[in-house]
Amino acid sequence: MGNKVSKLAILTKGIIKENPSLVLLLGTCPTLATTSSAINGAGMGISAMAVLICSNIVISLLAKIIPDKVRIPCYIVVIAGFVTLVQFLLQAFVNSLYESLGLFIPLIVVNCIILGRAEMFASKNGVVDSALDGIGMGLGFTLSLTFIGAIRELLGAGTIFGFALPWISEHPMMIIALAPGGFFVYACAIAIVNTIISSNGGKPRDGFGCSSCAMSGSCGTEGCSVDVSKLEKIEIKKGAEA
Amino acid sequence: MGHYLTILVGIILVNNYVLAQFLGICPFLGVSKKLDSAIGMGIAVIFVMLLATAATWPIMGILNYFEIGYLQTIVFILVIAALVQFVEMVMKKFLPALHKSLGVYLPLITTNCAVLGVCISNIDEGYNYLEALVNSLGAGIGFLIAMIIFSGMRRKLEGNTDIPVAFQGVPITMVAAAILSLAFMGFGGLVG
């Protein structure tokens, strides 16, 4: 809290400025896989948000106790514990969602957003700030997933949240709801966001940044980019060691 | 024998992990810029998938025996992480040449969703040990094939100046992935 960032800024930055899936391009797998309908996207987003908030709180509390060398495995255990809880809750109360998200619920564990926030934010900040960060990032993730899901559902099946729309539902474009449509709609969403960023004088991401590695957290820097150039650097370093 | 072939072809072409099931998208997009690294990453993924399945399938039996199957997620991710770390250490000590070409990718895929995904889906599908191993091999090969094709596509994209401004960079790469995924949909119905 020494850097005087207001609580509101922490809360809102995840929603727009640092939206995890549309601006930071993190968590691409669930963004593509669970957005075949708006309900699925929202369900995935809310599940991930619940895990993110809880793990952020617990990790910020434990940050001083966990030894630095084993911090990543410790974070993973905390996250996996909460994912198991969410899995139980979904199975008990919204079984239909549990069935349709399937494999992607346990895979929240390896969602780079959650591990990334644990390493970059929760381990360095207080409990309240970490919780707010979790809420903001989680909301940003949920909103973008719901948005992409709604577009894919509208074009692919002609429905919105399950309600059929008059003319469109008679002429659905099936392909949008299938795998290629996922890539395509996500591409268009990023293109729109990039245009908005450039028109505001910003610079859109030109690489896949941290999304290329689930261990994004462990590299520590905000602008980390494990692309080929970095891999080569690691290679050279390893070569020098050997 | 035919049964195993069905699983293998099904997972490589029809239900390709990257292009049909969206697993392992992160390395698929991140490390496919150059053919060399794409192949290295693909082989490392095959290796880790086989290893992780070989380890986690028996562990699920143990968990079920004690009726604590719900600990699957926690146990699997820890086992995979520890295993990969261990293999990297062994490789560095005894097979330095292999470590130099594959070792770089190993820490990156410790917590790759495709690896955890294949382990969990092997259990969910109710495969026996051999079927599980074949399934993981196929998933890895499918990943490697997708990586190689996609790195070729990206080389064509690079330096192309006809791309609309909004789509330059990441979005056009995703559109290319969409087209590749569309091509792989043609394999649908190949195996019953």
Topology of this protein?
The complex is a heterodimer of chains A (242) and B (192).
Chain A: H1 7-13, H2 28-33, H3 38-62, H4 71-93, H5 95-101, H6 112-122, H7 127-157, E1 159-160, E2 163-164, H8 174-177, H9 179-199, H10 216-219, H11 228-241
Chain B: H1 2-14, H2 25-30, H3 35-65, H4 72-94, H5 96-102, H6 113-124, H7 129-157, H8 170-185
Helix pairs in contact in B: 1-7, 3-4, 3-6, 3-7, 4-5, 4-6, 6-7, 7-8
Can you offer a commentary on this structure?
- Chain A is an all-alpha fold.
- Chain A has 11 helices and 2 strands; from the N terminus they run αααααααββαααα.
- With 192 residues, chain B is an all-alpha fold.
- Chain B is globular and about 60 Å long.
- The two termini of chain B are 16 Å apart.
- At the A-B interface, α2, α4, α9 and α11 of A face α2, α4, α5, α6 and α8 of B.
Which structural class matches the secondary elements of chain A? mainly alpha
Q: What's the overall average pLDDT of chain A, rounded? A: 81
Number of helical regions of chain B? 8
Sheet/helix structural class of chain B: mainly alpha
Q: What is the approximate shape of chain B?
A: globular
Brief rundown of the structure:
Chain A folds into two domains: 2-199, no CATH class; 210-241, no CATH class. Helices cover 63% and strands 2% of the residues of chain A.
Features:
A: 2 domains, two-stranded antiparallel ribbon, disordered C terminus, B: 192 residues, mainly alpha
